[in-house]
Amino acid sequence: MVTGSLYQYPFVPKSFSVGPHHLSYVDEGEGPAVVMVHGNPSWSYLYRNLITALKGEYRCLAPDHLGCGLSDKPQNYPYRLRNHIKNLEQLLDHLRVERCVLVVHDWGGAIGMGWAGAHSERIKGIVALNTAAFLSRRLPFRIAVCRWPLLGAFL
Q: Residue 94 is part of a domain; what is its CATH number?
């Protein structure tokens, strides 16, 4: 937990237990919920100005994924998409978020969209910032080609 101050981070983060691990999150303001999901290697700090601007009218929630920001960074944790989605689900259930606008960025897009797909009735809207969205389970060719030995390293 943070005891000092961080540059332009005016929030006192809260804590949520994910098994034996500590997940840090910001919970500021009252009103309709806006859930902000960061990417990698970012953290809730990314949303500090947005939270400051919105917290007068909205409940702003911004978790730090395990491995990022002020959350624990366990060595042997399985950092997989499904685990991050599950952690977000547990946090939002714990905080009794009935409906929300979801703001997602980068890797947070996959995490947030994964949660939203399973809980569409809880989504009022989605704001996607610099993230990827695919219509199928297959990766687009221009991304898949980067995984090819030699050619991917060349690109």
A: 3.40.50.1820
